[in-house]
Amino acid sequence: MQDPNFSKLSDLKTYLLVALIFGAISAIIFLLATLFLLVLIVGLVFVLPLAVSVLVVLRIRRMRQAAEARDIETLKRYRSTTWAIIALIFGWIITGIMLLIANGVIDDLVVGVPAGTFAPPTPQWTSAQPSPDYKFCPNCGARMAESARFCRQCGAAQN
Fold it and tell me: Domain residues of the chain, as ranges?
């Protein structure tokens, strides 16, 4: 049986990777601006944004590692709208937006479901008679055409 968090974790890893890339770029820009302007003493103004950008990147990196390890409890612990807003202010807008999207995905993750133990949902019909044109995948429970040979959701071969 397919884990209900599989596709959500896959999406989450993508969002966190984009946030990590843009967060790192903003940290590098602040670092270069600090080093370049430090000669003029004005560069001290960029030290705080640089430090905050580095903290945001480190936090995103930890979140991505937790997503790779499928550690949902850690992801829920690191989920924070405050950090997303900080990323919007001190990083690039894309970093903050990706963290906000990731927060929504993390909220939807199901805690405590070991891989392989998920039971697919029982199909429920809105009409009194099941439609003869549809069947459900025995692997993930996705609705599909009766003539389908493979599930579009999980790719399992159908009988």
Answer: 6-108, 123-159
Give the separation between CA 103 and CA 96, rounded to whole angstroms. Answer: 10
Write down the H helix ranges in 46-155: 47-68, 72-78, 81-90, 93-108
Q: Which residues is 143 bridged to in the sheet?
A: 136
Task: Reduce the DSSP state of residue 136 to 3 states and report it.
Answer: strand
**91-137 pLDDT per residue, tens:** 778 888 888 888 888 888 766 655 444 445 555 555 555 555 778 88
pLDDT at 104: 85
Instruction: Confirm whether pTM is higher than 0.70.
Output: no
Phi, psi of 37 (to 5 degrees): -90, -10
Count CB-CB contacts under 10 A for residue 62.
15
